[in-house]
Write a structure and sequence with these properties.
With 89 residues, the chain is mostly beta strands. Helices cover 0% and strands 42% of the residues. Strands 5-6-1-2-3-4-7 form a 7-stranded mixed beta sheet, with no helix packed on it. The protein is globular and about 30 Å long. The chain starts with 12 loop residues before the first strand and ends with a strand.
Length: 89
């Protein structure tokens, strides 16, 4: 994947590679020790498959991201294999 400033991720729509609209990027989780992006904090859209609690953002592991351009595309087929956590707010 090509490099881009992290601030460009904010407010981008997150969609699954099967067409589901997940939500919008609200924040990122960065591991300073290894210098890598760990998770995206997503504000789930209505009827999003990643919604855990109404009004709460969720953390999606960055390893699910398959492409970033005008939107962030994640590997939707692996959603059931990961632990989606509610973000601390």
């Amino acid at each position: 994947m090509e490099r881009m400033p992290a601030k460009l991720l904010f407010e981008r729509t997150v969609i699954g590679n099967k067409g589901s609209v997940m939500g919008k990027v609200k924040d990122i989780v960065f591991d300073e020790k290894v210098g890598r992006l760990v998770s995206l904090e997503i504000e789930p859209s209505e009827h999003s498959p990643v919604m855990k609690e109404e009004g709460k953002n969720v953390l999606l592991p960055y390893k699910l991201v398959v492409a970033i351009k005008d939107v962030v595309v994640i590997d939707e087929s692996n959603l059931n294999r990961i632990n989606i956590r509610v973000a601390d707010q």
